[in-house]
Structures are given as C-alpha cells and as structure tokens.
Design a protein that fits this description.
It is built from 13 helices and 20 strands. It is of the alpha+beta class.
C-alpha cells in the first residue's frame, strides 16, 4: 500500500504546475494590462482590466453569460413592446455596498449621464436610437427608442453600461476595501442556497499584469485564468510551454484593419487606399498569426450580421496577388512617380504587431512604397483599428467611419447612416446600411485585414469558461461546468 502511495505521489510531481488542480480558495484571474479601477463610463474610457472589474462589481441591467447569451443582471426581468420601441425592466431588490437601496431613479440618471453630450462613453453613438430613459416606479425603468433596435440588450450588457456611482457598483461581486498582496483585488459574491446551509461564497482574486508576466504566472500555476490577450501579445503565449488546450480563442466579431489618421496626405485619394488594400497578402498574414479559424477579410462588414446579406468581395480578391502585382506596381508608379513614397503606421507594441508591420513592409515595399513605424498616432499616416463589436448590428461597423469620427471620410455616406438610424422600418434600415457598406468598401475608407484576435489562458480548474463573439468573460461560476450545449 505504501509503495502504491509513493508511485501516486511521484506521478503527481511530474504533472506541469498549471495542469494541477489549484488549491482550495479564490480563483486567481489575471487580466493583461494595468491595475483595474472602478470607472465612471461617462468620464473615462475603460481599459480591458477596468472592463472586467466593472462588469463584475457594477453589472448592467442585463449581463452576458459565459457563452455570450443575455441573462438577468440588475434587472430581474424585462419586456419589450411589440413595436420594439419600449424596453421595460424590473430591477431586483438590491443594495449599494453601503447598504442603501438601488432605485430605478438612480439607474436612469446613471445611464442618461453616459448618453449626455459631454460623455466619453465609446458606445454613446451606438445607442443613439434611445429617446429617453424614465423611472416609472422605484423598481421599474423604461428605455424608450426612436426606432426599433433588436440588439439593444447586447449593448446594455456591455461594461460601458455598468451601473456604478461614485466608484461603487451594484454587484454581483463586492470589492474588498483592502487590496491583496501585490495590489490584487478580492471580489466576493454570495450565492443563495436552497438548503439550510445558508449562502455560499464565490471568490475571485483579480490582478493585472503585462502579457509576459501574466503568462509566466499561469505556467507557474499561480494564475488560474488569463484574460485580455490580443494579436499584439499572442506570440508570447504561443512560444510558452502551456498545458494542452489551455490557449483559447474567442470567435470575436468586429474590426481589425487600417484607417488614415489625418487628411492632407496621398491617402485622401481613394485610388491610393485601394492600391494599398489590394497589395496586402492577407493569407500570409493570417498564416503568420496562427489563429485557428481566422480568415482574411476584404470588406468592412463580416458575414452573419443581422438583417444584411453576407458582403460581396471585390472582383480583385478573386485573382491571386502574384498575378495582380505587376499591375499594382504600375499603378504605384502612376500615383507616386519613380521616387518611393513613405507611409508611417502606428501599431501597438508587441511581437504580433511586429508580424503585421513586417508583412506590410514586404507587401507595400513590393510595389515601391516605404513603410515606417510611427511612435505616436499624431506622427502616423495610418493606424490600426482592433475593436470587438458590442452587438450583431452592422450599424456599429459602419458608424465608426462617419465624418464626425475620422479625418478621411465620404460625406455622401453619413446621410445614409443617419436615415438608417431614424427609420421605423427594419427592411429599409438594413437596405440603407447595405448601401452605405458598399460605398464604404468602394471608397476603401477602411482597409480590413481579418477579425479581431482575442485569446485567454484557461487552467483545468476553470470549468465555466467559453469563447464568445463579444470576447467578454464573466467571473461568476468559474469552477462550475457549463450546461450541455453551452460550450
């Protein structure tokens, strides 16, 4: 018997640290980035660590589960009118951490602040169809729309619409007032139990760190879950000795591509932007990033968005780049002459950005254009947009490039987007958005590359993790297995 015990102990010792079951206690979560804080979404644009903390201690009216489905948050239930113009939420009986009741009047004021003209909330424009937010009773709130928005719940579930007041949230987790060793935050959630044992506790220790440090902590078995990875730091994870199946990718929806940063350059000309887009070997870029399922993209919209047909690739995309290159070189000569033009690109730091930059140096250098890395956005001609869509609506993709937001735009597209926002007829709305998307692709206002890349590291302790299109991950029930069909 003693010999058998020794054999078991020897076998356990050979298991990599990150594969072993974590000791009892709070699940340890590290988000790539700087120390998270509870933010006022109307005053500060949140970082990824901020967003993870915000959605945990300051849930919205609704929230997302592990697979990206809408579930109750601060609101215990809701109804939508038949015409889609009214969303009525009944707020659960809950308190602020100080003990005072959360009321519908408070929630209405907090949400309206995020929609006010002076708000910096990045989703403010996305919910522009909201006409008013009204507290009907102390526990009932109504959101009134000017036009139907079937994706409104997905937007309200985003961290940008978390209900927080003066740095205090509404749950489901409570933030310990005293930070842990090293500045980590302890989050505690009480779970009602149906038996006589009383409430149980769900605890998470939340930390933030640079990517390389977060990966080292995971491989050493000191972190159970790493969140917030992007294409820029992905190679660091790919080079690490990770337990099998611990590197997970979200099937993220959104924008990943290049956009001009200023007017008054050759990029004002649509033909130059088209030239640059056509010269990129997207297949080679996707192969270099080594992300399962990642596909090249040549249109601003992606397949599968609500109400619009899958986008049609431009004719040039059907011809291999090798066959197009001679024509592209000739066009580059016509645009810039014999002297090589120089483009400066701003990209985030990280080895994934180096892969993208080197790809552009090769592809655009092949048609006679020099490429340099800019240190700041202000010093660049092009910058990268790497953003996950907050809903399945095509409008979010297109409204990023209105003249209000970008220096190089098409003033004829904005009226189409405004008309799409105001129409009460869904079919007309989607027709206008399809027309706007076609004009945007024709003008090449955005140079798409692929979908956004979002990755996580997940230990065997974490059973309640699933990838989703929003790349948002709840900290609730991390150790509970997903229900069948929920993975």
């Amino acid at each position: 018997m003693r010999a058998l015990s020794l054999l078991v102990l020897a076998a356990v010792a050979l298991i990599p640290a990150a594969c072993r079951p974590s000791p009892e206690g709070a699940a340890k979560v590290t988000v790539i980035g700087s120390t998270p804080k509870v933010r006022d979404p109307a005053l500060t644009v949140m970082t990824t660590p901020d967003a993870v903390l915000e959605s945990s201690v300051g849930q919205g009216l609704v929230q997302l589960d592990a697979t990206g489905n809408i579930v109750p948050g601060l609101a215990e239930r809701w109804t939508v009118s038949d015409d889609g113009l009214s969303y009525i939420f009944r707020i659960a009986s809950t308190n602020w951490s100080g003990g005072r009741k959360v009321t519908a009047q408070q929630v209405a004021r907090i949400l309206k602040r995020s929609l006010a003209p002076g708000s910096v909330n990045p989703l403010k424009d996305t919910v522009g169809a909201i006409d008013d937010i009204v507290a009907m009773t102390d526990r009932v709130i109504e959101i009134r729309l000017r036009a139907p928005r079937p994706n409104m719940l997905s937007l309200l579930a985003q961290p940008e619409f978390a209900i927080v007041r003066e740095g205090v949230g509404t749950g489901p987790f409570r933030l310990s007032p005293e930070p842990e060793k090293g500045g980590a935050l302890r989050l505690t959630r009480e779970i009602a139990s149906g038996d006589d044992e009383g409430a149980q506790k769900d605890e998470v220790v939340l930390n933030a760190a640079p990517a390389a440090e977060a990966i080292r902590s995971f491989t050493a078995g000191n972190t159970d879950l790493v969140l917030g990875g992007t294409f820029a730091d992905l190679p660091l994870a790919q080079r690490a000795r990770l337990p099998r199946n611990s590197l997970r990718f979200d099937p993220a929806s959104g924008l990943f591509g290049l956009v001009p940063t200023r007017a008054g350059t050759p990029l004002d000309d649509a033909s130059v932007r088209q030239l640059l887009s056509q010269a990129i070997d997207r297949d080679a870029l996707v192969d270099a990033l080594r992300v399962p399922g990642l596909a090249p993209r040549v249109t601003v919209l992606e397949p599968g968005l609500d109400g619009v047909p899958s986008p049609t690739a431009p004719g040039w995309a059907a011809t291999a780049l090798a066959e197009r290159r001679a024509g592209l070189v000739a066009q580059s000569m016509r645009e810039f002459g014999a002297e090589k033009a120089t483009l400066r690109i701003f990209l985030p730091a990280g080895p994934g950005s180096d892969i993208l930059f080197n790809r552009l140096v090769l592809d655009w250098g092949g048609i006679g254009i020099n490429v340099e890395r800019a240190k700041t956005v202000a010093a660049s001609d092009l910058k990268l947009i790497d953003a996950v869509a907050p809903s399945n609506s095509p409008a979010w993709f297109l409204r990023q490039f209105r003249c209000e937001f970008v220096p190089v735009c098409d003033k004829d597209i904005d009226p189409l987007l405004d008309a799409a926002r105001d129409t009460l007829v869904p079919a007309q709305r989607y027709a206008l958005l399809t027309q706007a998307a076609a004009k945007m692709d024709e003008a090449q206002l955005f140079i798409p590359l692929a979908a956004p890349v979002r990755w996580s590291l997940v230990s065997s302790r974490i059973q309640g993790f699933a990838g989703n299109r929003f790349a948002l991950h709840t900290l609730s029930d991390l150790e509970q297995k997903l229900s069948p069909g929920g993975s």
